[in-house]
Amino acid sequence: MNQVIELLNSHRSIRKFTYQPVAQEIINTLVQAGQAAATSSFIQACTVIQVNDSNKRSQLMECSGGQAYVGEAPVFLVLCADMQRNKLACEMNDAEINSGYTEQFITATVDVGLFAQNLTVAAESLGLGAVYIGGIRNQIARVADLLELPDMVYPVFGICLGYPDQNPEVKPRLPVEVVLKQDSYNDSNDQQTIAEYDKSVSDYYRTRTGGNKDMTWSEQMSGMLTKEARPHMKAFLKDRGFLLK
Ligand SMILES: Cc1cc2nc3c(=O)[nH]c(=O)nc-3n(C[C@H](O)[C@H](O)[C@H](O)COP(=O)(O)O)c2cc1C
C-alpha cells in the first residue's frame, strides 16, 4: 500500500457539505488535474461548466429529481463530452469534421470519465468530498438548454464538491475474483461469490441507516435494471449530433 492507493480505497460519495467555500484557485487546480488524465488520440473532449448562478442551480436540482445537494453544495460542475472544439480545430485547417460516429461518442464520453475521476481524486486528496450526479440526465435537454450547449456537446454528469459535513463508511465493492478474470470470461463461481457479497452490502446498509435500509446488491440491481433507463437519451444524443453512424 501507499498513500495514493489508500486514498483511492477510502473513497465514499459525500452528499452533505459544510458552508465553507472552495477557493476558485482550488477549483482551477482540480480542473487541471482532470486535464492531466489520458485522452483518446489527444482529443481532450471534456468541457466543465461551473454553475454559480443560483437560479440555474435550483433548476439543475429540479432536473436531477430534486437532489438537494445539487443546489446546496458549495461547487457544482457539469462535465460535458465536447466535440465542438475538435470541429473548430478542423475548420482552422480548412478541413470538415467527419462527425456523428458512435466511436467518437465513446471516446468523448470515456475522456469525460477519466477527467472526472482525476478531478475527484485530486479533490479528495485536498480533504474535499464529492458526489457524481448522473441525475442531470433525467432532463438532459433542459440541462443542455439551460447551459446553452451547442451541437456536439452533451452533459454527461454533474459533480457536487465541498468540504464534507458527514463521514459515511466506505461502501464494500465486489470481491476481486468476480471482477478480475484470467485469460477468458469464466463466471462459474460468480453466483456464489455474489451471494456472499450480498451479505456484506446488506450489513453496510443496515449500519449506515440504523436498520432503516436492508438491501443486498443483487436486490438493488434487480430493482433498478428491470425498469426503463432514461429512454429519451438516444433521441437526444442523435439530435445533438452523436450516434448518427
Ligand atoms: C456517473 C455517476 C453518476 C452518479 N449519479 C448519482 C446521483 O445522481 N445521485 C447520487 O446521490 N449519487 C450518484 N452517484 C454516486 C453513486 O451512487 C455511488 O458512487 C455508488 O453508490 C457507490 O458509492 P460510493 O461512491 O460512496 O462508494 C453517481 C455515480 C456515478 C459514477
Textual characterization of the structure:
The protein is of the alpha+beta class and 245 residues long. The chain has two domains: 3-168 and 227-239, NADH Oxidase (3-Layer(aba) Sandwich); 176-208, no CATH class. The protein is built from eleven helices and four strands. The chain has helices at residues 3-9, 24-35, 54-63, 68-72, 84-91, 102-125, 140-146, 176-179, 190-208, 217-225, 233-239, and strands spanning 46-50, 75-82, 129-133, 153-162. The protein has a four-stranded antiparallel beta sheet, sandwiched between helices. The model has no long low-confidence stretch (mean pLDDT 97). It binds flavin mononucleotide. Flavin mononucleotide binds at residues 11-13, 15, 64, 67, 131-135, 157, 171. Flavin mononucleotide (FMN) is lined by residues 11-13, 15, 64, 67, 131-135, 157, 171.
